[in-house]
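Long-time lurker, finally posting.

We've been working with KTSC domain-containing protein (Rhizobium laguerreae) and I want a structural starting point before designing mutants. I don't trust myself to interpret raw outputs, so I'm hoping someone here can both generate the structure tokens and explain anything notable. Sequence follows.
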Amino acid sequence: MAYEPDMAIVFDSATKAVIVSFRGVTVYLPGPYADRKAAVLTAEAHCRRLGWRD
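Top reply, 14 upvotes:
Generated this for you. Predicted structure of KTSC domain-containing protein:
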């Protein structure tokens, strides 16, 4: 699946949180998430709610 230009998802393994940058807005999703995969799935769902079509 292709991300939009400047779309980024970063998982922080220390805090188990995820940071999402999408269409110029950066959001911190505190979690905690069980692992990177769960965090990325949540972040991608957030982007879909904002209009991203993968």
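Before you design anything, note these points.
The chain has a mean pLDDT of 95.
Strands lie at 8-12, 17-22, 25-29.
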